[in-house]
Amino acid sequence: MADNKGVMICGEITEGKLAPITTELLGGGRKLADTLGEELSAVLIGSGIGDLATEAIAFGADKVFVVDDPLLADYRTDSYVAVIEKVVKEVSPNIALMGQTAMGRDLAPRLAFRLDTATSMDCLELSIDPDSKLLLQTRSVYGGNAMGTYVCEGTKPQIAAVRAKAMDPIEKDDSRKGEVVTIDAGLDPSMIRTTVVDKVKEEVEGIKLEDAEVIVCGGRGMGSTEAFQELEALAKLLGAAVGATRPPCDNGWVPAGMQVGLTGKIVSPTLYIAVALSGASQHMAGCSGSKNIIAINKDAEANIFNEARFGVVGDYKKVLPAFTEKVKELLAG
Amino acid sequence: MPNMIVCVKQIADPEAPAGSFRVDESANQVVPAAGVSQVVSPFDEQAVEAALRIKDAHGGKITAISLGKSFVMDVIKKPLSMGSDELILLQDPAFEGADSRSTAYALAMAIKKVGEYDVIFCGRQAADWDAGQVGSGIAEFLGIPSVTVAKKVEFLDGKVKVERVTSDGYEVIEVSTPALITISNELGEPRYPKLKGIMAAAKKEVPTWTAQDIGADASQLGTAGARIKLLKVFQPVKEGKCEIIEGESPEEAAANLALKLREAKLI
């Protein structure tokens, strides 16, 4: 195990491009690799990967392992775990990073157990212990009520799944040089025990939450589908996306895809207007990266006021229409 | 008719207000305030619900398994009162100090002892440590396929059809049985136990299995079987510098808030 070297990230490709999580992992991985004085590599898995390896180099990779096979067109647990297992065994990295995404949260634990090592999920911060040179993996626990720092002492690679937007990409530099290595998937189709029979998109109209600079979010206190239409009106004025905490989704007032939180979307807008939501830890886990949180809540004791920069204590039914009206006036003037 | 297994965990109520959880740094533990009740982890209740929906449609048998200590019987019997057929508790000092891997190993050994199974359900993560690994770990130890973060599960002949939540919707996946499925909150609300179910559950004998009962290798259990170590638990300090915008009326406060955001160049 002493000869495990290098930081490897497992990239993700969406619609023929490097997914944002890939460049974030490259940025975070670059820092760790530089601290250790080791190489940063990326694994790109899929079908028809084309020139994305060059792009991964421009975003910080020293080496890119490309596994391109028609059987890898969709993420499937059995095929992806087998391929990453194969690459890890060939490359023997010290650290392997993936995203806390639909793919990474499925892949990381199975890979870790198959390799008889461990992983930490949903990491917010990664650093190298100056003495042991081991990876310190900090993640939220108890629905965001606390943080835990973990270390994997006896086995390699040290695997961590990293939350979206927890790390910053480095600036793209097309003049960076790196090596591209093609690895054969070597898959036997009969070992893949799942079939993807359909993919259904449930995109909410308008701006995607993950991309929005401004978000208007409603909580349990909204009380109904109709109430959310008022948020839509404000969002339209501000060019914002509309989000929700878990109760409005679970109650069917809004689609599940609008959920912001530990088990929903992770967002980090410039402006986050939180309406009639208490600020439960599991919600804050999804939006605490927001630069400015604004709270409107009738309960002055609500946790959201501990998180917010500005707030109004009052019933949203009275505050929201007047706020929307004033915003309209200001934007018109 | 499918044989189903559901893994459930008893935890401190995660819906308790944010301020109810304190960290005991010397013990590396999160300590819920007095009065925070014990519950079945909500995602695990949804896993029970997923199994019950299949039982409603096809019949079959549901065995719930829980690994833990200090069980509160009225709480941990909830899968039975909801409609599961059996409940098995795993309790042994040898299980303590486990990480996700050693927990998954113990549960997989218990499942092997139960014997026949077509589908195993787990919650997507336990709502205390939020590790989100045990389901995949059980599948890995049993050598069966897994599908994680499901919102709908249908049992078909010899396979299971799963709607798996993705970032922009869901994928429909078919998987051969036996398979392990982890359930997410998008499945919908779990049913409330009926009085008849609660009475039957109260009377039901619940076996407790030890490490020896499940034929576990001691080197794979608890601290010995763990591959990761918790170094420290802490609570980030919140600045809490919210500027409350006042007004003569809620409407005026609202208008003042809009002006403030304009002044701060946020709108």
Pick out its properties.
heterodimer; A: 333 residues; alpha/beta; Rossmann fold; 2 domains; 17 strands; elongated; B: 267 residues; 9-stranded mixed sheet; two-stranded antiparallel ribbon; 8 helices; 15 strands; 29% helix
Write the layout of secondary structure elements.
The complex is a heterodimer of chains A (333) and B (267).
Chain A: E1 7-10, E2 13-14, E3 17-18, H1 20-36, E4 40-46, H2 52-58, E5 63-68, H3 77-91, E6 95-99, H4 104-114, E7 119-128, E8 135-141, E9 146-151, E10 158-162, E11 179-182, E12 194-201, E13 214-218, H5 225-238, E14 241-244, H6 246-250, E15 271-275, H7 281-287, E16 292-297, H8 304-307, E17 310-313, H9 316-332
Parallel strand pairs in A: 1-4, 1-6, 4-5, 5-11, 6-10, 7-10, 13-14, 13-15, 15-16, 16-17
Antiparallel strand pairs in A: 2-3, 7-8, 8-9
Chain B: E1 3-8, E2 10-12, E3 21-24, E4 29-32, E5 38-40, H1 42-58, E6 61-67, H2 73-76, H3 78-82, E7 86-90, H4 100-114, E8 119-123, H5 134-142, E9 146-156, E10 159-166, E11 169-176, E12 179-183, H6 195-203, E13 208-209, H7 222-225, E14 229-234, E15 243-244, H8 250-263
Parallel strand pairs in B: 1-6, 1-8, 6-7, 7-13, 8-12, 9-12
Antiparallel strand pairs in B: 2-5, 3-4, 9-10, 10-11
Helix pairs in contact in B: 4-5
